[in-house]
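Work through what follows:
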Amino acid sequence: MMAAAATGATAMTVVSSSGQRVGSLTQFNQNRTSLALPQNLTHFSSSISMPAFGNHRIGVGIEKKESWTSSGKAEAGVRQLVGSLTRTEGLRFAVVVARFNELVTKLLLEGAVQTFKRYSVKEEDIDVVWVPGSFEIGVVAEKLGKSGNYHAILCIGAVIRGDTSHYDAVVNSATSGVLSAGLNSGVPCIFGVLTCDNMEQALDRAGGKAGNKGAETALTAIEMASLFEHHLK
């Protein structure tokens, strides 16, 4: 809370529309005004008109750490369910990796495994399954999800555009396959398939200047696994 005492300062109590004291407003001079609020009042929302303060009329909006309905009424006790990156004990993961464009997918896999370990996932709780290409990822991910052995499935591949429409067919099939795997198995299946115009773009996203998308999607897998295990069972 900010100090409100100063020589020649004019102080005023800040109250809510219900008449409850929620803080204080202090004018030190024409150019400096201090608003002191308790810690559970964090930011300003719709304006509440206050009496004239010095030569100025001041509007202050107070918003508590509560959920608010569209009508403006506070809705107490609303829970927010969020997956944790730290509660990883007991979580098991499968990583389905396409062998095609292995130069890229190996780097993505390394980034994913390193991230799992960094967030305290044990090696014995990570299974890696290799498939020929990104087209085959979906069916394997669904099979793994339905096995009941994993809390999330991370799907890794790299599809690079060529001279024919084959690229579009594989990308569309891989995308819909991973989506269907998650919906049909009820286990989060995370899309970690790169879709790039050339090899340079792919390598940039496999540990190059654009980061490692394998590591990023591993974080998504951890969060979703935690959300399902700790909140949605």
Observations:
- The helical segments are 102-118, 137-146, 166-185, 199-204, 213-231.
- Residues 10-75 form one domain.
- Residues 166-185 form the longest helix (20 residues).
